[in-house]
Amino acid sequence: MAEHDMSDKPRGVTIANPWTHLRKHTPARIALGRTGVSLPTTEHLAFQLAHARARSAVHHAIDLPKLAQDLARFGPVVEVQSAAPDRPAYLQRPDLGRKLSAESAAKLAAEVKGPFDVAFVIADGLSAFAIEKNIVPFLEAMLAVSDKAGWSRAPLILAGQGRVALGDEIGAIIGARMVVMLIGERPGLSSPDSLGIYLTYGPRVGLTDEARNCISNVRSEGLSYAEAAYKLHYLASEALKRSLSGVNLKDDAEVLPKPDGEAAGNFLLDGPKG
Amino acid sequence: MAGYAYVSGHERYVFRDLKDLMAKATPLRSGDLLAGLAAGDDTERAAAQLALADVPLGVFLQEMVVPYETDEVTRLIIDSHDAEAFKAVSHLTVGGFRDWLLSDHATTEALAKLVPGLTPEMVAAVSKIMRVQDLVMVAKKCRVVTKFRNTIGLEGRMATRLQPNHPTDDAAGIAASIVDGLLYGNGDAVIGINPATDSIGQVTSLVQMLDGIISRYEIPTQSCILTHVTTTIEAINRGAPVDLVFQSIAGTEAANKSFGIDLKILKEGYEAGLSLKRGTVGDNVMYFETGQGSALSANAHHGVDQQTIEARAYAVARPFKPLLINTVVGFIGPEYLYDGRQIVRAGLEDHFCGKLLGLPMGCDICYTNHAEADQNDMDVLLTMLGVAGINFIMGIPGSDDVMLNYQTTSFHDALYVRRVLGLKPAPEFEAWLKAQEIFAAGDQVSLGPDVPRAFRRAIAAE
Fold first, then answer.
1. Which residues of chain B carry a pLDDT beneath 70?
2. CA B357 – CA B416 distance, rounded (Å)
3. Does B218 reach chain A within 8 Å, measured CB to CB?
């Protein structure tokens, strides 16, 4: 009781909540305070800004030629496009984002010839920001691990207006045993730039989500690049060993050690009552 | 079946069968366009609505939109239909049914008696020829009351699910959102977590944590971990203190199969939940979630429009007497409901259809950042559903779900709708809020000035 006054504090007509210190436990928007029973102006407008940023993440177009330049140091790069011609079509027709344009399919078949152990496909998905911010540091961590494992790898493939399953067609055309889709996730209000990773063994058109393993929330404030690379290496090694991915691989992956520093403490139940 | 037609002068609109007619009569939404089922233009849609209005309700018991032989949901609907209850409206067409529902004959008591006589297809059909105000007017007359540790769905009351999700299920992070929610007067429908990790160990430890909080602070509410029903059954077998058994459900056997469930598994979950006898004022132990588009998403829609399939999901819920059923209306994304206008209409349709079928409807009034929607659209839907008498809504800190990455109604939003419409929480929970002085005394919804005594030490010790 000494360190916290337990009355809501009026600041003019708005009222602050005396539990703002609990924010250290969660990124959730707790202890926003109130005016009457409504959101104070500051918090209301902060939300509007966050929403505008998340919307920009969805509609921001990926600059594939520039990205290709940035990634050239990792080896050869090939650019492709899905069958979705633009963003509105991409958002309303998920089926188009899951297949290559006829031109790109022909280009891949002509230019990239496997077999490969693994193909890394990089797609804008629902957030090009996620790729722009995270792809270089993630590839630095991951390709070192991948090369150390001795996997033969396809050229990096950059895909515009792509959804996760686009990797299935790409992997099948070029002859990859595994495809790793690195894709911008659906932006959250507090995380507009989150990278998702999907591993699929034996990629072919028509696979669904239960055939994949997912590593989510890869970004500087979320799962670290090193940790994501570690998890992906574990899953991909198992996938190659067992010739499968997806639900049947998942159970084993869950025994991975938890990130450290996560005590199970809960202040509502610790200590005496009252 | 010979098909259906509408003729106006020399113009003739023909519809292949009942499901084609229903799809084309459906107010515009992106999911039906994606499935290739929607009307070609507004005129064809209006013609389909006129033709649908002339279809006798009895036809819905003869012509199945999903085959009886291959779909257990259709079998459930037909085999459990109560012909005696249906008699009150059996002479009506869809258009006549709309008139009857809006008439003074359709009292709260008459609508309650009619419940077992209605099928989801009849209810979906009439909703397609109703305006928003019709959907509100009729739903408001329906009353569905359910109980576990409190009483939900009484007139003049609205409950909230406190949704304290955290990206890594951190116990203190979840507790922080629970404190925030309770002190803003939320959580009477359920304290319900979507776990980031679905393992049995994680689910069990979250169930225990919520049980600990509800017992220690003597909160008249119930907990739920929104994980697969088979995981919850396993947790119950291992002795976890489960209040509500959760499952996402859809309106066809094939879509449910894609969720890894069927009616038999749901029955097992229901019986496992009942076996614990943890309810104090009632034994409604199930919590279901649904949402337009889930069947198409699983490629299991049988050429039926997404709103009709959604209404069929309520028939799946009916035998299991849920405490709560929640349509997560804007969650899947713009390929099913493109913008605020489509989301608002869909939320009101779902609430109407569920209530006519006798279910305790709530709504996750929500949108994603790739939909053409914002907080203003949610305010409209929230207010309309409050007027329509919704049983419960979601409550989350500042509308931002930091685990699922979407926006739903906030703790503040619930207080707004309580205040403008005079809606109170569940009576048992309201008494607790007042005893804790979280709500100030008096009739208007106001928050007290202090942190309740019971929570002071825990918060201060931080």
1. 1-2, 462
2. 29
3. no
pLDDT, tens only, B99-146: 999 999 999 999 999 999 999 999 999 999 999 999 999 999 999 999
- B163, B186, B370, B409: best to mutate for the A interface, most A CBs within 10 A: B370
Domains and CATH numbers, chain B: 146-435 (3.20.20.70)
Which helix (H) or strand (E) segment holds residue B240: the answer is: none
Sign of CA dihedral A36, A42, A45, A46: negative
CB A58 to CB B459 under 8 A?
A: no
Quote the minimal CA–CA distance from A27 to chain B in Å: 7
Q: How far away is chain A from the Cα of B212, in angstroms, using its nearest Cα?
A: 7
CB pair distance less than 8 Å for B30 and A92: yes
Amino acid letter for position A56: S
The residues spanned by each domain of chain A are: 9-58, 62-253
Residues ≥6 apart with Cβ < 8 Å to B366 = B328, B329, B330, B331, B378, B394, B406, B407, B408, B409
Long-range contacts at B253-257 (CB < 8 A, ≥ 24 apart): B253/B70, B253/B71, B253/B72, B253/B73, B254/B71, B254/B295, B254/B298, B254/B300, B254/B302, B255/B294, B255/B295, B255/B298, B255/B300, B255/B301, B255/B309, B256/B73, B256/B316, B257/B300
Question: Does residue A43 carry a pLDDT above 60?
Answer: yes
Is a pLDDT exceeding 50 seen at residue A2? Answer: no
For the domain made up of A62-253, give the CATH fold. Rossmann fold (3.40.50)
Nearest Cβ partner for B451 among A6, A192, A274: A6
Q: Read off the amino acid at residue A270.
A: D
Distance CA A163, CA B30 (A): 18
Nearest to B397 among A29, A185, A268 (CB): A29
Task: Determine which of A1, A3, A6 to mutate to test the interface with B (most B C-beta atoms within 10 Å).
Answer: A6
B3 touches chain A (CB under 8 A): no
Cβ atoms of B4 and B94 within 8 Å: the answer is: no
What's the confidence (pLDDT) of residue A257? 44
> Cβ of B183 and A17 within 8 Å?
yes
CB proximity under 8 Å: B 337-356 to A: 338
- Which H or E run contains A249? helix A247-253
Cα–Cα distance, A31 to B355 (Å, whole number): 35
Helix (H) or strand (E) holding A191: none
Is residue B178 within 8 angstroms of chain A, CB to CB? Answer: yes
Contact residues on chain A for B433, CB-CB shorter than 8 A: none
Q: Give the ipTM.
A: 0.95
Find, in chain B, the residue whose alpha carbon is nearest to that of A274. Answer: B454
**Degrees to nearest 5, angle at CA B143 with B139 and B146:** 130
CA B215 to chain centre: 28
Residue B228's nearest CA partner among B187, B260, B190, B196 is: B260
Tell me whether B34 touches chain A (CB under 8 Å): yes
Min Cα–Cα distance to chain A from B454, Å? 5
Which residues in chain A are contacts of B209 at CB distance < 8 A?
266, 269
The torsion angles phi and psi of B346, rounded to 5 degrees, stand at -60, -40
Task: Inform me whether the C-beta atom of residue B254 falls under 8 Å from chain A C-beta atoms.
Answer: no
CB pairs under 8 A between A and B: 203
Cβ contact, residue pair A254, B197, below 8 Å? yes
CB atoms within 10 A of CB A147: 12
**Chain-wide mean pLDDT for chain B?**
96
Give tens-digit pLDDT for A214-261: 888 899 888 899 999 999 999 999 999 999 998 777 655 444 444 433
Q: pTM for the complete prediction?
A: 0.92
Instruction: Report the sign of the C-alpha dihedral through residues A232, B200, B250, B41, in that order.
Output: negative
Output the DSSP codes for B219-232: -S--EEE---HHHH
- Token pair for residue A64? 């594939």
